[in-house]
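Comment thread on ticket #2218

A.B. wrote:
> Attaching the input chain for the structure job we discussed in standup.
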Amino acid sequence: MTKIESNGPGQLQERFGRAVGRRLSAGTAELPYHVTERLRAARVQALARRKVEATAPMVVGNGQSAALAFGKQRFGLWQQVGSVLPLVVLVSGLVLINSVMNERRASEVAEVDAALLTDDLPPAAYADPGFVQYLKSDR
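C.D. wrote:
> Ran it. Output below, let me know if you need it in another format.
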């Protein structure tokens, strides 16, 4: 087996792949033609997949801010709209929730005000400390 030396993780993988490739190629002379052709086609497919760069999202620092980048890949119009659409839906949902909650609070306050104004007691009676004592005591 070949000794594998490395200066970094990328070189280690590259050297390991080459060593495995040499070991696999050593026994191909005895294989039938149809098997070697299938192996050749598989190698071509593997190399084609390997050459396609995978662009994983990464956080890129720019001064005192950070941005989510996807390598050098350019987005089309529909991809940009699709990436902004969830943010728009989230913000509109929060605005809708806020307006519904404000409406509920206003209706609850209106009910309390209506109950106070239609009651037999004047509103000043509720502020009187003696009235609170009257409510706490047994009648």
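A.B. wrote:
> Thanks. Noting for the ticket: The beta strands are 58-62, 65-69.
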